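Below sits the subject:

***
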Amino acid sequence: MINKEEHYVAWALHLTELDDAYKHLEVLIRKMTGADAIQDSEFAIDLGHVYAHLNRAWHLRNQRSEITNDQWSAFSQFPKDLEPVG
């Protein structure tokens, strides 16, 4: 995995994805806390956005440079090398 000392810019991009996931999840939780209900379609979009950030964070863990436009879509997909736990 990349580290802050050897790959500072890549590390910052990696943390940005995690921070964005955190912020979007926080917004979703606030939205749901203040609502009586949420539509499946809206929930899917919001949660899918969080997943895309988390997926990119996973794929970026060894990436030493910014991802290209070609990599963006692939890196946004759920990883095939990560098993859900719990």
Q: What stands out?
A: The CA atoms of residues 55 and 76 lie 5 Å apart. The mean pLDDT is 94.
